[in-house]
Structure formats: structure tokens, C-alpha cells
Amino acid sequence: MAQSTGPLSFTEQFALRNLGNNKFETINNPQRMGNPSNIAYGGYALDTACKAACLSVPEGYHLYSMLGNYLGPAYTDRPLRVSVREIRQTRTFATRQVEISQERDDGKKRTCLMGLADFQVQEQAALLKYSRAPNESYPHWKDCPTQHDAEQKLLDEGKISQVLLDAHTANFSLMPAIFDQRSIPSSIFAQNLYGMAKYLPHSQDSLPLAKRTTADWFRCHQPLPTTADHTTNLAFLIDGAIAFTPLSFSHLFFEDVAAVSSLDFALRFFINDVDVTQWHLREMSTTVGAEGRSFGESWVWDERGRAVAYMSQQSILRPKVERKERAEKL
After folding, report:
1. Which domains occur in the chain, in start order?
2. What are the pLDDT digits (tens) for 177-236?
């Protein structure tokens, strides 16, 4: 199976081969992002599950909810396989169970994700229309620097080194290949390079961790031919960085923990006419940390102020065991 070696469009990255009986396989292998281990970005498994579920329902059904669990990391040297099972199909609603897996070296199946996707046909009218606003009042995207300019400013001011910036660019290269992003100066990620410059103070240090937020503007700069492509593109974006948000907010990063990765997810869409080629605002926060886990949220609004999508996740956040403590446990 071909590993994606050159710059592929979003649609090409998530092209599926139909194996029949609601089974699919990705044509290109998933890629790594944001995790120092050589495993695929979790958005690949989620996005593939969303797309396969969308392909399994009749025309006119819109994804509004997908709940599930990340059961293990996906590898970057092999394709993802998808199995979709019909749970419910009525004139109004459809529910699909989706399983993402990869073939192990011994030929056995290894499940990476299990989820339930719910769809609904377009309602004729809405009794009420309302949505919550962001926690902060953010500047318009036109008044915000590009991601590149914000990072270059940190470099020019001597706050980060070229080596660190190069490492960040390598770790997060997938996003700028797909999205235009505008950095909001008051946000934590803009001030500490997504947490990689953990030694830098940020303007929310005086706030309790559960009150801190980070936000940015984004849009997909590639053409997306179908409604399913817009939906899955947003799923790919909204999954990003939730797991390590508590680290980045707390002057910590991957090297400071034994494990950090998403365990489960609740993805919800609030509108049917998603168009990710238009500018959207994303705001992220983390509200609970306990029992070796964290709970984080990501909200997305369009320029009209409509809440478009939401994702919450619990993630493993396991502290390192010091050598002396480890020896005592042995």
C-alpha cells in the first residue's frame, strides 16, 4: 500500500477503497503530527471513521453526533481499515457503528477506534435558534497575524530559537498544508509555540488552569467537493491538541509526562451547512484533571457567531515515575 510521500490534498489523503459490504481501506497511509512517537495523528482514525459512516447512509442524512473510544494508536506504515455496521435506519434517523483497525505484522487485526455515528435528515423548521458564545472576546481574523508571522515574531524577538521553531514546524506540518490559520495574540498557543516553548510566561498565568483558553481562526484552503468532505475536514481539525492542552497551559510538554493521548471523544455538529473553506473560530480549554486523566473541550464557531461543532475528550495524563519511586515499586 502506498505511503503518502508528497503533498497530497485533503481529499486525496482520505480517499477510501471500497471493499464491499460497508468495508473500506485508506489508499494512503496516515501521517504523524504533534506526537513525538512514530504513530499517526488521531485525527486520521477519526476522520476515516466519519467519512466511511457518511458514505454508508442515504443522500440527505447529516452527521450530528459521533461518540467513541480511541483503543490504540494507528501506525504510519500501513493503511487504515474500516468496517461500518448499520444499527438504525429510519426516515429521519440513521445510526452506524464504525470500527477502525490495522493489520498487525502477524496478520491479525488490531482495533484502533470504535464509534457510533448518528445522522438526521434536514428538519423543515427550528423552534429555537441559539448558541453559546466564546469565553473571550477575540479579534477578527483580519486583525490577527498568520501562524507563520506569529511564529516568526517569537523568533525575531529572541523568545525561541531557530532549532525549536524548526522542530515545531516538523511536528505540526500537516495543519498548514491543509489550513490557513490566524493566531490570536492573547491565546496561550500563540505565546508559547503550542507549548513547545514551555519556559515562556503567558498572559493567563494568573488564572486557574480550568479558566485558561487558547483560540485561533482557521479555514481549509483546499477545494472540498462534497458535504462529507467538509464534515470530515472539520473532524480532522477539531481533534487536534486537546490531549496536550493541559501541558501547554502549565509550562509542561511531552517530555514531562509518561503518557498523554486521547482516550475517548464526543463530536457534535450543530449545523448541516458546514463550509470549512470559510473562516471559523476555534477555542480550546481544559476543565478537569484527576486520576491520571484530563478532560478537554474544543468549540468551533463560524463568522456569524453560530456554534458549528464541539468536541470533548478524556485523555490519559500519566506522570513520570522517578527512578527511586520505580525501584521501590519493584
Report:
1. 1-122 (3.10.129.10), 144-330 (3.10.129.10)
2. 999 999 999 999 999 999 999 999 999 999 999 999 999 999 999 999 999 999 999 999
